[in-house]
Amino acid sequence: MNDAKGKLIGVSVGPGDPELMTLKAKRAIESSSVIAYPVKKEGETSFALEIVRSAADISGKEILELVFPMDPDYVVREAGRRHAIDKLCSVLADGQDVCMITLGDAGVFSTYMRIDLSVSERGYETCQIPGVTSFCAGAAKAKVPLISGEEGLAIIDSAKNDGALRKAFDDFDNIVVMKAYDSIPEILYMMREREIPFDRGVVISNIGMDDEYVGGMDPGREYGYFTTVIINKKRRWTA
User: Fold this and answer.
1) What is the pTM of this model?
2) Which of 26, 138, 175, 203 is close enough to 231 for a disulfide, judged by CB 3.0 to 4.6 Å?
3) Helix (H) or strand (E) holding 176
4) Is there a single domain that holds both residue 109 and residue 91?
5) What does the mean pLDDT of the chain come to?
């Protein structure tokens, strides 16, 4: 075994469009011999890996799948997580740097942050390369400001985080709700409760992907998993 430990690099690859992956991310990926990516089950498609294949040359590199199961049983989830971390650390212990890729930005509701902490606790060096978030890319597509002047901005992981979302509606001018693909009716209900016009919100779904959608909040429409809602209580969104 190599006495020199490898370094874990958390590489943010952006929301979907390969052209939104940064030059620094591309350079780190092409300089590393191992590319790791997290999935919920073995053999699952990785959107992050598809982005990387389109934006960087990864020929000849080892591709390391790390399974983090989303089983309802906590014991099963933790066992899977430990196995994935062990697998990752064995590569680092052999002296190889590993680029672990993640959609959007590694610091925003990302699986990577827990992995970074676990690997750091085992004595390995880690670092992160930031990236473009889905809500920043979506706001640009929708031509809406995320925040202006003296306003505040709340970013909520999901409409299912009911208490946090209600507080955000009450306390902030601008609200970003991520993972909102199946929660449009609930969001509209909270807006109706507060007499916030529905045209203050815009849906951005699968930004940078083939089935990208930017449009009004239609409760009858089916949205992809990567769906975010941006709400500005003061300004009307227009197509």
Assistant:
1) 0.89
2) 175
3) strand 174-177
4) yes
5) 93
